[in-house]
Write a structure and sequence with these properties.
single chain; about 150 residues; Sufe protein. Chain: A; 2 domains; 3 helices
């Protein structure tokens, strides 16, 4: 008598096991869905008096850009200019809703800041893995620069 006859249970165990393993792999690969709420790190944003920026008394002018909505939350940048030169860039609002946002932005925000200071403009590269944050950062930075120069 042959071991794998049609009525033998071993014949059904192999495909059933393969289907179970495949199902578990698919189930474990699913990521939990979170809604992109506007939970963000936010530094106090004060509205400067008399226009788009405030003179700090040292000839430096600080301007906060528009808040830009991205897929994962708002991004807002504040810049400081001295004699028309960009001397400081700070992200005052950016997504930190979950650990993944925090991980991504812990390396993306400092890299974007360094690139902006080096380029002296909003013409900066997108940080790999942080496309939405990079886009929001760039647009907010441009709005701050426009407000400072306009």
């Amino acid at each position: 008598m042959h071991v794998l006859k049609k009525s033998h249970p071993l014949r059904r165990i192999v495909p059933a096991s393969a289907a179970t393993v495949s199902g578990m792999v698919l189930l474990l690969s699913l990521k939990p869905h979170t809604t992109p709420q506007a939970t963000a790190v936010q530094a106090p944003v004060t509205a400067p008096s008399g226009g788009a920026g405030a003179d700090t008394g040292t000839g430096a002018r600080t301007v906060t850009g528009d808040s830009m909505d991205t897929r994962w939350g708002p991004v807002q940048v504040r810049v400081t200019l001295e004699s028309g030169k960009l001397t400081e860039v700070a992200a005052v609002v950016y997504p930190t809703e979950n650990p993944r946002d925090q991980e991504i932005n812990s390396y993306a925000v400092p890299r974007l800041r360094a690139e902006a200071l080096e380029a002296q403009s909003a013409d900066i590269d997108t940080v790999s893995g942080a496309t939405y944050t990079s886009d929001g950062y760039r647009r907010s930075l441009q709005s701050a620069l426009d407000a400072a120069n306009g």
